[in-house]
Recover the amino acids of this structure.
């Protein structure tokens, strides 16, 4: 353990920020840290859109299901998978890059590139004493988000990242047992053991909620997540991504 | 700037490692750091497979196009998008989660979750004085990788992460200009400016290669990447992912 791993392990999402904007220097440090992350074969297949316009932030908060901290924070970033740049490059170099950039492989590459950059941004922000919250909620309405941020074809806004000075700190939710996430040499084959690990984790989560709510809530993890997944949200995504000319072949 | 942002901005991929395995404590610190990353709605849709078996590592190196550092390192991790766990959970809770876990939305969630965790692992490793290299090359043959690591349906090995004690340090390649990656309030609409930024970056990259190779190599970035994308690699990916019952609807 050291200062950095301490910082990583102490992460929690922040959903209440002071009304104090980030400085230009902070924004640049965060973006440069994001850019320093690894990128698949040097393709740099992502873009970051900083949103400062109040109306746009209010609209994004609405898309995200009225999460106030999408509008109220120090700075709001949107991380995008971006192969538009590569389309332009193909034109500049007179090379047919279209089959590649329309492939599932390059869709995955662009999503991974954007996420690696975002996590560096998150870590950089936390090292500056700021709090962060990923906002997957913008995916409730990516048509709306694309229109608002004027993203071209082959650009998919993936998630927001709200950053700011924390005004309230949340607890840290216990993660899955290490031995359940981490396999050695092969994926765990014994389903009975797999289920036991989930049951063990259910006890931990249930106790966590019990303590935190004074007995009002005792959800298990599998109950909570299976209940959420049963609801089938954002089922328009395949059409949207393909309309944006990605993940097509 | 602080110690953490310095560490992030000084990242470079390491492709030569000493013959010295990571300790159990180092592995656990890295995995726990990975797990501390944000996860979409608490779904924790990823798994990590550590590979220590020499034959398996040799095979993975072969899949990755004979990259020696896939076999020779301190520890080799494979990060997987994982919705198998959620399939099991649906069975445990008697909820129909299948349409959700077969959606493009949840495929994206699982890829993002895995990448956020991986980047925390990478940062943790570098903070311990270790070097890292992402290995997208395992995606050359995911059928082979799945068979080798016995991953079930709804698990997609995304990339490897080779970690170890660096024996040779590479240079750091300059990234795209900040103003090209970072947009404000809307995606840059002026294509002429967009292309100028790419041309400006081409000069930077060309000078970088020129200096580094004593004039032998003067590639531009757009030339290098468009040339790579023209080649259409890993076009089997869509079939593979769908065969694994992800990104289906």
């Amino acid at each position: 353990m050291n200062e950095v791993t301490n910082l990583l392990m102490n992460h929690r999402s922040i959903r209440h920020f002071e009304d104090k904007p980030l400085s230009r220097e902070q924004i640049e440090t965060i973006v440069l840290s994001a850019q320093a992350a690894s990128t698949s074969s040097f393709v740099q297949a992502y873009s970051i859109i900083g949103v400062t316009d109040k109306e746009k932030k209010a609209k994004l908060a609405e898309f995200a299901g009225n999460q106030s901290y999408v509008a109220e924070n120090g700075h709001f970033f949107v991380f995008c998978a971006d192969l538009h740049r590569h389309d332009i490059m193909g034109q500049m170099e007179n090379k047919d890059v279209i089959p590649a950039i329309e492939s599932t492989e390059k869709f995955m590459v662009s999503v991974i590139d954007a996420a690696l950059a975002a996590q560096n941004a998150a870590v950089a922000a936390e090292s500056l004493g700021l709090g962060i919250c990923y906002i997957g909620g913008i995916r409730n309405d990516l048509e709306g988000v694309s229109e608002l941020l004027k993203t071209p074809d082959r650009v998919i806004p993936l998630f927001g990242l709200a950053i700011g000075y924390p005004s309230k700190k949340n607890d840290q939710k216990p993660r899955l047992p290490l031995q359940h996430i981490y396999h050695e040499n092969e994926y765990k084959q014994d389903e009975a053991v797999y289920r036991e690990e989930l049951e063990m984790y259910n006890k931990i989560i249930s106790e966590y909620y019990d303590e935190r709510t004074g007995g009002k809530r005792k959800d298990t993890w599998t109950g909570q997540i299976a209940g959420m997944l049963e609801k089938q949200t954002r089922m328009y995504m395949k059409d949207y991504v393909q309309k944006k000319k990605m993940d097509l072949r």
In short: Chain B has twelve helices and five strands. The domain at 3-171+233-243 of chain B is CATH 3.40.109.10 (NADH Oxidase).
